Amino acid sequence: ADYSHWRPVRGDGNCFYRTVVFGAIEALLREGSGEQIAGALAKVSYDAPAEQQAHGDMLERLRACDSVEALEQLIANNGEVDEALIRGCRRLVRHFLC
After folding, report:
1. Tell me, what's the pLDDT at 97?
2. Buried (b) or exposed (e) across 37-46, using 16+ Cβ within 10 A?
3. For residue 38, which of 10, 66, 16, 12 has the smallest C-alpha distance?
4. Is the pLDDT of residue 42 over 90?
5. What local confidence, expressed as pLDDT, does residue 14 receive?
């Protein structure tokens, strides 16, 4: 397969989830908008108020993304959004596996 570019990611043990997140989000952005992505992640909830707040903030920012480039910039430049996105993805995976 040919790849158009390399995407650096944080080396914190969540590379698999970032790969899944980016692939899913890129596919959704090609077909729609950040709203679809946020809609899928809106099903996730947390007991801890701080985690729920971070999740809500991340959803708002995702809804504003209208391109893969905007998404890449958001995640690369905002560690809180990145962490909330990873937590949300992990929760979704757990939900579907259990």
Report:
1. 80
2. bbeebeebeb
3. 66
4. no
5. 86
Burial class, 95, CB count within 10 angstroms (exposed 0-12 / middle 13-18 / buried 19+)? exposed
Alpha helices in the chain (DSSP H): 15-31, 34-41, 49-64, 68-77, 79-97
Residues 71-93 pLDDT 10s: 888 888 888 988 998 899 888 88
Closest CA to 21 of 32, 34, 31, 2: 34
| CA distance linking residue 73 with residue 71, whole number of Å | 5
pTM given for the model? 0.74
User: Taking the alpha carbons of 43, 47, 48, 49 in that order, is the dihedral positive or negative?
Assistant: positive
Amino acid at 46: Y
Please, are residues 35 and 64 in contact by the beta-carbon 8 Å criterion? no
Residues 80, 57 contacting (CB under 8 angstroms):
yes
